[in-house]
Structure formats: C-alpha cells, structure tokens
Amino acid sequence: xxSFSNEEFEFTFLDEGFTAKDILDQKINxxxxxxDKDAFYVADLGDIVKKHMRWxxxxxxxxxxxxxxxxxxxxVVKTLAVLGxxxxxxxxxxxxxxxxxxxxxxxxxxxxxxxxxxxxKHAASSGVxxxxxxxxxxxxxxxxxxxxxxxxxxxxxxxxxAVCRLSVKFGATLKTSRLLLERAKELDLAIIxxxxxxxxxxxxxxxxxxxxxxxxxxxxxxxxxxxSMYLLxxxxxxxxxxxxxxxxxxxTSVINPALDKYFPLDSGIxxxxxxxxxxxxxxxxxxxxxxxxxxxxKEQTGSDDEDDANDKTLMYYVNDGVxxxxxxxxxxxxxxxxxxxxxxxxxxxxxxCSIWGPTCDGLDRIVERFNMPELQVGDWILxxxxxAYTVAAASTFNGFQRPTIxxxxxxxxxxxxxxxxxxxxxxxxxxxxxxSLPLSCAWESGIEYPATCASASxxx
Length: 460
Prior knowledge:
- Helices cover 30% and strands 23% of the residues.
- The chain is of the alpha/beta class and 460 residues long.
- It has two domains: 11-42 and 282-299 and 309-406, Beta Barrel (Lyase, Ornithine Decarboxylase, Chain A, domain 1), CATH 2.40.37; 46-279, TIM Barrel.
- The strands form three sheets. Strands 1, 2, 13, 14, 15, 16, 17, 18, 19 and 20 form a ten-stranded mixed β-sheet that branches. An eight-stranded parallel β-sheet has the order 5-4-3-12-11-9-7-6. The chain has a two-stranded antiparallel sheet with strand order 8-10.
- α7 (174-186) packs parallel to α8 and α8 runs parallel beside α9.
- Keywords: Decarboxylase, Lyase, Phosphoprotein, Polyamine biosynthesis, Pyridoxal phosphate.
- It catalyses: L-ornithine + H(+) = putrescine + CO2.
C-alpha cells in the first residue's frame, strides 16, 4: 500500500492531552474577527482506527468491507485501506476511487445487485470479480459482460424493524434463490456465496439470526447443484454512535452464536460484512454558523402570567442545510441534536427555537423545535455524529458549497495504524494500545476544553 501524499489530504497531529474538539475551537477562534465563518467539519481519523480495533474484538470471524457510499472522503477510504479493510462498491466511480489508492481487486465486492452493463464491463477490465445479483436478468447480463465473475446471491430479509428498509428493493426469496442457482448453472456461472442486508439502523438483532439461517439454506441448495460456495456476506446495519437503542456489542453478541451454529469455524466459509456508518458516524463533527435570525413574538392571550421567558420563539438560519450535510434528515431518517459551542450561563433563559438551512427552499429545516438560550448572528452551533450519509450525498443547490473537512489524528492512533499497515492486523495487539487512543469527535457535550492546541500540521 502506497503511503499518503500531500495531493490527497492533510491532517493535524493531536498532541497528548488534546482532542478533536480543541482543533474545532481553534478553527472557530481563527475566524472570530472575520465575516467569513463558513461551515466546516473536524474529522477524527483516530476514531476510525479505534472502531477498527473494536470491530475485530467483537466480530473476530468477520472481515469488514467498508460501504463506500456512506462516506467517500478519500481520507476515510485511505485510512481503512491502510488498516486492511475490504470495500463494498456500488459503481464504477467507487471502484475507481478505491483502486486509485492501491487497493487490490480481491478486496473489493461490487455489491450492487442491479448494475449497468458498461459498469459490469469496467469491473471485469479492472479485475473486480466478486459481485452481487438477485435476478435472472442480472445473471444474463453478467454472463455476457463478465463471464468469469464470482457471484454472490443476495437474499431478502425481514427488515421491518429497520430504520431504512432495503429488502423492498433488493433480494431474492428462498424459492426464487433455487431457481436462480439453477439458471446460473445453465449459464456456467460461478456462485461463490450468499449476501443479505437487514436494513440500515437495525433495531432487532434477531433479524441477523434469521438471515444467517436462510443463508445456510441457500448454501445447502448450492451444494446440491454442485456449487462450491465459500463466502457469506452479512451486510450492514451496525450503529456508528452510542446514542442508539441497540448498541454494537448487543448486535454482535447475537451474530456470533448464529455464525458458529450455521457456519462453524471448521466449515471453511469466509465471512465478510459491509459496515458503513459504524466506521464513520462518530468521527465527524460539523460546525455551522448562524447567518440570520428572526424573533417571532407570541400572540398575547390576556393571561396575567408575567413569565417573559416564553413570550417569543426564535428562528436561526445557518450556513449548511438539508441540501448539504443535513440531507441525512431526508434520506437517512436522522435526528440531529444541536450543541452550543459556547457554554451557556446558568441563569440564561431558554426559548423554543427552530434551525433552518441557507437555501431559499421552505423544506430546508434542520431542527423543528429545540429549547436553548438565545444566540446571535455569528455564533456557532455544533452537530456531532455527522460522518454517515452526510458529505457523500451533499449537493451545491442554490450555489452553497460543501463544508471543508479538517482531519486530525492522535499520535498513538497514527502509530497503531502504521503497525497494522506494516505487520497486518495482530490479534495479540495489547489492550493498552487501544485504550490509549483518545475519545472520538463525539465528545461529551458541555465539557470545557483548552482554547488553543499545540498541534503540528503535516501531510499524510
């Protein structure tokens, strides 16, 4: 794997005792006297390293193939490539991105069941062989455009308890799976395994158990037809932050016994997954600036109540919105929570507030109602856990540009990353190596931090 270069991105080393929050405060202080207070991200690459270690501890049998669609920032992809992850790509462009940083084709799965013929041909010409399918038409396209492909049959799941359901669009039933396997045999195509996705934001870990059991049935069907199937892809659906009802380890504690039951270690089956938000959600914090403000006075009711704290509501307009980073509200069912950059005073009154994006569209609303102290134009509002399905789908609608991303990493995380790069992932990596990594960007709100940070900006 080639080393980082300054053409790709820059990052800032965090000195001991400092966090990504210090860099965020530093960036805000730098523009405090300027009118150019553009929205920006601080992304902690060390958080991704820590997530990688956590993954291997919780799912030791499962190799992560990062879902590029979740966040295609080159720094993120490069970091995961150095850590040895594979990649789930859904298009020619994503394949080109991953291969441009030196990832070999065998570490890529073209995990889109419905592909354009020209893009299937591109996968073939670039050496990418693993790809998913869920229909006879797709089989026939692959037979013509990429006959040496190693195909993975995607089956449907019960994703009724997921936030974002995918089986309404993708997946074959068990009955259809047998027909597809028979058709693949007729076309002399290689079926190497089964994949599924329980839906994004899965809230019921038992869904994984049923899907793994169904995959076992399809493996048995394939064996009857003479296929040598050796790959199980358990998809995504893993949380990327701690503000969720179902924690990561609660899911993995159910997955591991199911894998041991249906695909025991001595079965020789390779198991992969397609985590996206798990790796990047908590690594990104977004800072937006208040560019306009409107005070809406409440109508007088004739009441004798003299409580002045509730006589108005406040509307804040900030310089990023649902056509930019907050597209996650529309497309990913995200519920974002504003955090004040400045600590409020204990005696500050709170008001009912709404937060709006900068475009001229009335749909561009970030927060409908939230109680917080009165703020002024030029003040900053922060949003944590903003790494998943945000920057990747942001547009420049109305001429508003995407926020700049500032990358940071601690020295212990950088050293651990280099160790993995040079020696491969070591199961015996000592616990203190992981424990020494600082907290993620999704720091505990309200804690006071030093105003300045002694850091070194270098090229990765």
